[in-house]
Amino acid sequence: MQQITEHIRRDHTSRLSISKLARSCGMSRFSFSRLFRKTFGVSCRDYVMRLRIETACTLLEVPGASIADVAATAGFTDASYFARMFRNRMGMSPKEYALQATNEPLGKQKYST
Length: 113
What we know:
This protein is an all-alpha fold. It has helices spanning 2-11, 18-24, 29-40, 44-60, 67-74, 79-90, 94-102. Helix 2 crosses helix 3 and helix 4 (44-60) runs antiparallel to helix 5. It is elongated, with a radius of gyration of 16 Å. The termini are far apart. 19% of the residues are buried.
């Protein structure tokens, strides 16, 4: 499992397949998922999502970062899905997080199109 988590950490911003990860361990998807949850206390999908959100948080701390660019760089193919998952995990929108992280007053934020 250590090698798998290293692989996930290294490639979490790319498209990861649980089936491929399981095959690389010589396991079925079901066995892999069960062992992953037992070992780490979360599903593989949740683990990857956490890493992507952490990456996004780091990127959002850069002043003037585009939300769409942050989403893509963190491994999300859909900015709306990214915003939904970010709000679900962080309790605020990516924009709110960026403003808070950069201490930028609400009236002075830059809008990117």
